[in-house]
Amino acid sequence: MSRPLLTLSGLSKSFGGLQAVSDVAFDVQERQIKALIGPNGAGKTTIFNLLTGVLHPDAGSATFGGHELIGLPPHRVACLGISRTFQTSLLFDQMTVLENVMVGHHLSGRSNMLTAALRIFGASAEEREYREVAMAALERAGLADLAGRPAAELPIGQRRLVEVARALAAEPKLLLMDEPAAGLNMRETDAIAELIQEIRSRGITVLLVEHDMSLVMSISDEILVLDGGRRLAEGLPKEIRTDERVLAAYLGEEADD
């Protein structure tokens, strides 16, 4: 097997007396869909925040494509090719869907969004590039027909898809997805599942945090289970589904469905 795209080793983080993440280690292979699951407070989102430079760990390392992530600010992590979505909607409601997705591509530009908007010298050509990349991302998410619609008018399912499209506009190598199916109905969850698989088919690696076990079991290549900030189990979906430690800590009767 080739060298993993992402490697975590001994990653730990505490908040006062609470040990949110404790000596966590795992790999993510290139073009893999890997899920992190566990009860609320298991440390899943904390790991995302550590990987993206939002938080700094107390100990441990995280390497991505041979680059150490620990100590880098969020914009440097993004420039290496890591993008993410969030648990709660973070769209700019006063902007259109297309403008929201254009924001995701700004890291690769020479001009910032303000100069592009003001059409200062050199910005117009770049703005066209922003629009082209953003429209391509919207097409992949099945939202091209909503490009000119104000984000404030979108229902939750479409907002989730726009957030994924914005992350894709950054042209990442690794996409971190934090509960993309939260608040969605079955049809919307199926659409997210199809999109995640399509993203992987385009060569993008996905690290997924999700509570919807039907979604996790259906699309994941591998699953890591966290409990109390510690690694509890890791394996194929069929192995996790029948692991007694996992059943006791988290899945419970859901694993029998």
Structure description:
With 257 residues, the chain is an alpha/beta fold. The protein contains ten helices and ten strands. The chain has helices spanning 44-51, 74-80, 97-103, 113-118, 123-140, 156-169, 186-201, 213-219, 237-241, 244-251, and strands at residues 6-15, 18-28, 33-37, 59-64, 67-68, 82-84, 174-178, 205-209, 222-227, 230-235. A hairpin with a 2-residue loop joins β9 and β10. The two termini are 33 Å apart.
Structure summary:
This protein is an alpha/beta fold and 257 residues long. The protein is built from ten helices and ten strands.
Chart the SSEs and their pairings.
Layout: E1 6-15, E2 18-28, E3 33-37, H1 44-51, E4 59-64, E5 67-68, H2 74-80, E6 82-84, H3 97-103, H4 113-118, H5 123-140, H6 156-169, E7 174-178, H7 186-201, E8 205-209, H8 213-219, E9 222-227, E10 230-235, H9 237-241, H10 244-251
Parallel strand pairs: 3-8, 3-9, 6-7, 7-8
Antiparallel strand pairs: 1-2, 1-4, 4-5, 9-10
Helix pairs in contact: 3-5, 3-6, 5-6
